[in-house]
Amino acid sequence: GACIIGWLPIVNDSVEHAGKHSWANYHRSVWHEAMSHILDSLVEPATTGDWYECSDEIEMQLFPSVLIYSLDYEEQ
Q1: 35: left (phi over 0), alpha (psi -120 to 50) or beta
Q2: CA-closest candidate to residue 40, choices 3, 6, 2
Q3: Pairing of strands 59-62, 50-53
């Protein structure tokens, strides 16, 4: 199964700033900072695992993983 562990902010495009490198860099830095916070929270559990009691009352050690989110800017 999968679950949502965080939300990525959406920076709305501005006609005033469209096409400017500084605006593209701002978009990129917001996205990377948000992903950094999400991934930092997974470092320890992915290394050592976390114990969970499943619905069948059996405890299991789970190691979270991240599915790759990879696409070109045009595909977003």
Answers
A1: alpha
A2: 6
A3: antiparallel
In tens, the pLDDT along 22-64 reads 888 888 898 889 889 888 988 998 899 999 898 899 999 988 8
How is residue 13 written in tokens? 């495009």
Q: Is the pLDDT of residue 72 over 90?
A: no
Q: Which two tokens stand for residue 39?
A: 């991934």
How open is the CA angle 14-8-30, to the nearest 5 degrees?
A: 55
| Tokens standing for residue 70 | 């990879």
Phi, psi of 59 (to 5 degrees): -85, 135
